[in-house]
Protein: Branched-chain amino acid transport system ATP-binding protein
Amino acid sequence: MSARLTTQSVTVRFHGLTALEDVSISLDQGEILGLLGPNGAGKTTLVNVLSGFTRPSGGTVKVNEIDLTRARPDVLARRGIVRTFQSVRLFQRMTVRENVQVPVFAHHAGSVEGEQAAQRALEFVGLAEESDRIAGSLPYTQERLVGIARALALEPKFLMLDEPAAGMNDVEGAQLVELIARIPAQYGCGVLLIEHNMPVVMAVCERLHVLRGGRTLASGPREEIRRNPDVIESYLGGH
Ligand SMILES: Nc1ncnc2c1ncn2[C@@H]1O[C@H](COP(=O)(O)OP(=O)(O)OP(=O)(O)O)[C@@H](O)[C@H]1O
Ligand SMILES: [Mg+2]
Structure:
């Protein structure tokens, strides 16, 4: 059965600041959902909530009807909810393969199955040949790919990518996006993609959710979002 990850009316307050207010989204297995919004709109905070790194002040996180609002990141990862980070966090002195295996082994405790999952993920992102290289010696773009391989090795049902193309040049970014577009077919998971490059988002995401100032500005199929006057005015303006 295909699963759906949802938030219902999620609110996050940090002391005086409301980072998210009443945000409801859904992500289906097999789709790519674009999450848009200007800096500080609450995109990373929403991913933090969905992946258990931030507890919301209000609202719920569910997979189908199962309430996971208070679940820890490792529990959510076991349930197939996995995210990457906006800035790469690799173990510099470990090899590429070890970096990808670390989270897998935390789940499968060194099994052959885990090794195979890590190998598959490295092949998928095109880094199988670099497996024995020390992670600290990788160029930036490949470092980011290791971050994605690491998440894929957990064979997620829902994968959240927080600005995976940040810091890449246009060619590298375009290659990465092609790779991301193939994830649902290859892994059967839903992908939530945070990405600022509008042509990229429009090319790869069938559905978009737009945040502004912690609130939902618009949500729907890409054609609808493209024509939405609020989105055009506040976010797409000039693009
Ligand atoms: N741990 C925290 N403590 C206090 N405020 C925070 C915390 N995390 C985020 N914020 C604030 O919440 C708001 C939303 O931040 P968030 O990082 O979710 O935005 P974003 O949409 O991911 O932005 P960007 O495009 O810059 O990555 C911002 O005003 C930010 O300063
Ligand atoms: Mg962010």
